[in-house]
Amino acid sequence: MNLFFRSVFFAPRVSLICVALVSSNLTGVALAGPPSPGTASLSLQQAEALALTSDQGIEAAQHRRAADAHDAGAADQLPDPTVSVGLQNLPLDNFSMTRLPTTMVAVSLSQTLPPGDTLAQQALAADARTAAATADITVKRQLLLREVRRFWLTVYRDEQTVALLRNEQALYRRLLSSAQTSYSAGRARATDLVRLQVKVAELDDQVEQKQGDASATRARLARWIGDRAEAAWPADLPAGLRDAPQGAINNQPELAVLRAQLGEARADIGVAKAAFKPQFGVEVGYGVNAGTMPNTGSIGISMSLPIFSGERQVPRLAAAQQRAAAQQLALDDRAAQLHAEAQSLERDFTSLNQRIRGYDERILPQLHQVSKLAQSQFGAGGGDFTAIIDAEQALIQGQQQRLDLTIDRASRLIDLRYLLENPA
User: Fold this and answer.
1) CA-to-CA distance for 237 and 352, rounded, in angstroms?
2) What is the mean pLDDT of the chain?
3) Is 141 in a helix, a strand, or coil?
4) Residue 58: how many CB atoms within 10 A of its CB?
5) How many Å separate Cα 123 from the centre of its chain?
6) What is the b/e burial string over 300-321, where b = at least 16 CB atoms within 10 angstroms of the residue's CB?
7) Residue 399: its H or E element
């Protein structure tokens, strides 16, 4: 009689406890608790802004771009003129400046004119180097943002996993308490108690591990954002890690760098072609006669004779053409590679969206229903406590799987944003 009373009295109590646990456990993936009082959470946008203002790699790229811009300003300038001063027709027997009427001091000014349109081609090459340096700054910004986003998402994943594990801890501790009560009533086995005790101990270890992982990632993120890396993390993912970005592969900064380098290579071909033409020089002179003869003036034009082009100009032109061809192939190959990566990521994103929707609309509601059914059967005197444990574990695993899918989708979006977005 006493055993019957205890079974009837405690069974509904166990069912009510489990129902309360499940209703508090089925909360989706945004499981992190509120930030500590007085501590503002660190949004992804804030982390990105802090990193962009403190990264020395971007600052170094900006200096290189400024240097290339200065070089470009002088690329189409003529070479410096040359001034010559000489003493002509000086007699060597007595070194007299007045003995011979042709003895004079001559001053000449000469200017070299590069062959063909060399200067214009050099200017094009310099402008291309500046454009490549400008695009390289954007590449480094994109690479930095991708790395910061990955670190931020890693901390988010660990924090959300810890929140799930803590909910699971609370659940299993309450199940353990209920199992002890049911064991006293003869409705649970000793193996159920041991199983729950082992699970609680495993969860304690998993919480410690994930907290350690999050701490290590925060330390790496602190390279750019300092103490802000220890702030609380938001409970929800930002839109940039949930929604597909807008953009096109043609605007990818890596391709802009390669296009600029191709422009430089083509300008080098122009320089090599210009070398087949003669180089001219202009010289103006003025002679001061030391004797009675009048002062003299002179003017002359010089011209190079590129008659041995097979040994110099032809090989240089061929080399420039080969470099341009290699640069074009590198551009085409990288464009095809990035396009394939973007298509693959977009399809992964679509697939993950569908799977997440499946968990929200079918899997998690059904697992919740199974859990309630197991509790109802146990409360009505049917089934056993093991069925409740299995149902609860399946529900928690389903929530963890949904979180994993959400993180996978966000990871794909980080790579897709790197490919499609072009921050100014």
Assistant:
1) 15
2) 85
3) helix
4) 19
5) 32
6) eeeeeeeeeeeeebeebbeebb
7) helix 385-420
Task: Determine, yes or no, domain membership for 68.
Answer: yes
Residue 27 has pLDDT above 50, yes or no: no
pLDDT at 24: 39
Q: In this structure, what token pair is assigned to residue 396?
A: 């928690």
Question: Which residues on neighbouring strands pair with residue 268, listed in sequence order?
Answer: none
Please compute Rg for the chain using Cα positions.
40
Spell out the residues 6+ positions from residue 22 whose beta carbon is closer than 8 angstroms to its own. Answer: 368, 371, 372, 375, 392, 395
DSSP state of 226: G
CATH number, domain containing residue 173: 1.20.1600.10
Residue 74, domain extent:
2-78+114-275+312-420
Say if 300 falls within a structural domain.
Answer: no
Q: What is the mean pLDDT of residues 322-339?
A: 97
Does residue 71 form part of some domain?
yes
Amino acid at 94: N
Q: Which residues contact 323 (CB under 8 A, 6 or more apart)?
A: 265, 268
**Close Cβ partners of 173 (under 8 Å, ≥ 6 residues apart):** 200
pLDDT category at 89 given cuts 50, 70, 90 is: confident
Which tokens go with 114?
């590069």
In a domain, 102, yes or no: no
Cα–Cα nearest to 86, from 113, 73, 69, 104: 104
Please report the pLDDT score of residue 22 as a whole number: 37
Question: Residue 29, CB half-sphere, CA atoms under 13 Å: how many?
Answer: 19
What b/e string do you get for 407-421 counting C-beta neighbours within 10 Å, with b at 16 or more?
Answer: bbbbbbbbbbbbbbb
Kindly report whether the global pTM for this prediction surpasses the value 0.85: no
Q: Is 213 exposed, middle or buried (0-12, 13-18, 19+ CB in 10 A)?
A: middle
38 conformational bin, left if phi > 0, alpha if psi -120 to 50, beta if neither? left
Instruction: Check the CA dihedral 10-15-20-22 and report its sign.
Output: positive
* Domain count for the chain: 1
pLDDT score recorded for residue 29: 38
